[in-house]
Specification:
Layout lengths: L1 H40 L10 E2 L2 E2 L1 H11 L8 H7 L2 E3 L7 E4 L9 E7 L2 E6 L3 E6 L9 E6 L1
Antiparallel strand pairs: 1-2, 3-8, 4-5, 4-8, 5-6, 6-7
Helix pairs in contact: 1-2
């Protein structure tokens, strides 16, 4: 009888853990999908240093705004996003944040959202909110890593 109780409790714990993990993944997928949708709805919005609204975005402003609309609070700057939230990943998935710096040894000064297919959405000073290839000759050598949350 005691073995059956222990086995039942163990199964309940395992199933609870499984459903929690599945729920976490579904919640993360929602944030990523919603944030990308919000960012895409702002394609063409001009770049504005310090901009946090559809009147004008800087890179971290676009990311913070897009994820905020999806219900996820992020820090204000690219550096704070890089150092204070999420976990580093080596293989990109849709919704991951990509970070860039003037050189590999410096702090991140640019952030974009990976949208899949080798593309990212960003607020670039030259083009405003736009989509670029991650293999772009300007961004690729400045890439320093990605974070997921």
């Amino acid at each position: 009888m005691l073995k059956k109780i222990i086995a039942t409790m163990a199964m309940a714990i395992i199933l609870s853990s499984l459903f929690t993990t599945m729920g976490d993944k579904a919640e993360a997928a929602y944030y990523h999908t919603k944030a990308i949708s919000v960012a895409k709805a702002n394609l063409g919005v001009p770049y504005r240093w310090g901009g946090l609204t559809p009147n004008g975005f800087d890179c971290s402003g676009l990311v913070k705004y897009s994820y905020g609309k999806a219900g996820k609070v992020l820090p204000r700057t690219a550096a704070d996003m890089y150092y204070k939230q999420g976990y580093r990943v080596s293989s990109l998935q849709t919704g991951d944040l990509m970070f860039f710096a003037p050189n590999k040894a410096s702090r991140p000064t640019h952030v974009a959202i990976y949208i899949g297919g080798g593309k990212m959405i960003q607020a670039a000073s030259s083009k405003g909110v736009s989509i670029a290839y991650t293999s772009n000759s300007y961004w690729k050598p400045r890439y320093i890593g990605a974070k997921r949350f």
